[in-house]
Design goal:
Rossmann fold, single chain, alpha/beta, binds zinc ion, seven-stranded mixed sheet, four-stranded antiparallel sheet, about 25% strand, 2 domains, globular
Length: about 350
């Protein structure tokens, strides 16, 4: 499969006028394989205002990356940034999403989306509703046809669950080691990026893209592909960090989702809605959620920034202990201020 070596609307020529490599007093990272965005991926605009500088906080490379905001549409992105040929260097071999984690199917997941699951009663519906709101994965209702694709599926954590719920499971993932793990579990996963078609068009009843779009070099292409994968009337589920969240404001440069340079884009409800509607999706519904990892990673980045520590993981027991406080804090979701934007929409029938 062809993976473009350079993104559309980006150039890799060395810095010059308008391409300063110092921002807010910080020297920015730039080396062979890095590129400049010349045209906004959402609106085509060419004027960008510098907003912030983010340090790299997973490998501790000491590099700094500048976030800019398009003056035309408010889309935020790193500029300059590592291009497709070097971005893989920023993903450690034990990157969380690429590792295998076996999880038993939970009762609420069966109630929410199991094939042939009985209609839940009033109390069960309430329980499912709460679990959907506080859980990392939203479980979509089972669709006739039952073909499901997870774009950027990692080692197939979600696919495992969807398979147990009765779906035929497909995926796309750029880390070859993760693809191997997913295929070993019976999922049909291809090595590739969200921007390159890896499966036949128009064959899926539901497509899912969870914490992936912010990692892509060209979100417009990734969304166009998700659209092409779906049958008419097929449902699409998307999750991205919310740049207009309480936590983004509270933690600033230590916000969990700064994650430069793995997160190349920062979205808010307005830009994500504009992207989806331009792609052709309809019935776009957006909610927000704040997870335990949003708090923990924010505190961890803050401690690393203040004290020079190099903590890269949040303990599992802390994640578990934070479940209840997080469920309470995510009351801000009613104001669209939770840490993630979760979107459901569909391709017109
Ligand atoms: Zn723009």
């Amino acid at each position: 499969m062809d993976i473009p070596s350079e993104s559309p609307a980006a150039a890799s020529s060395p810095p010059g006028p308008g391409r300063e490599l110092v921002a807010f007093g910080k020297q920015l990272a730039f080396r062979p394989g890095f590129e400049w965005i010349e045209r906004c991926d959402l609106c085509g605009g060419t004027e960008f205002a510098p907003r912030k500088v983010y340090p790299e906080y997973l490998l501790f490379t000491g590099e700094q990356f500048r976030l800019v905001r398009c003056t035309g549409c408010a889309l935020s992105f790193l500029n300059p940034r590592p291009g497709p040929s070097v971005i893989g260097e920023y993903y450690p071999a034990d990157y969380g999403a690429h590792m295998n984690v076996a999880r038993p199917l939970q009762r609420w997941q069966q109630l929410a989306g199991g094939k042939g699951a009985p209609a839940p009663g009033v109390l069960q519906r309430l329980r499912v509703r709460v679990r959907q709101d506080i859980s990392w994965y939203f479980i979509p209702p089972f669709e006739q046809g039952g073909r499901f694709i997870d774009i950027g599926c990692g080692s197939g954590k979600l696919l495992d669950t969807m398979q147990k719920l009765g779906w035929e499971t497909y995926g796309v993932e750029f880390a070859a080691s993760a693809v191997e793990r997913a295929c070993a579990k019976g999922h049909k996963v291809e090595v590739g990026t969200a921007e390159a078609l890896a499966h036949p068009e128009g064959t899926f009843d539901a497509a899912y893209m969870w914490h992936v779009l912010e990692h892509t070099h060209t979100p417009s292409l990734a969304l166009a592909n998700a659209y092409r994968y779906l049958k008419p009337g097929g449902r699409f589920f998307l999750c991205v960090p919310n740049f207009r969240s309480i936590h983004a404001a509270l933690f600033g440069r230590y916000w969990w989702s700064t994650d430069a340079p793995r997160h190349l884009f920062q979205f808010e409800a307005a830009t994500i809605r504009a992207y989806l509607e331009r792609t052709g999706f309809e019935d776009v519904q957006i909610t927000t959620r704040t997870g335990a990892s949003s708090w923990l990673r924010g505190f961890r980045h803050t401690l690393n920034g203040w004290f020079g520590t190099k903590m890269t993981r949040d303990p599992d027991w802390l994640l578990a202990a934070f479940d209840v406080p997080v469920a309470m804090s995510s009351l801000v979701r009613f104001f669209g201020a939770g840490s993630e934007l979760r979107v459901a929409c569909r391709k017109p029938a």
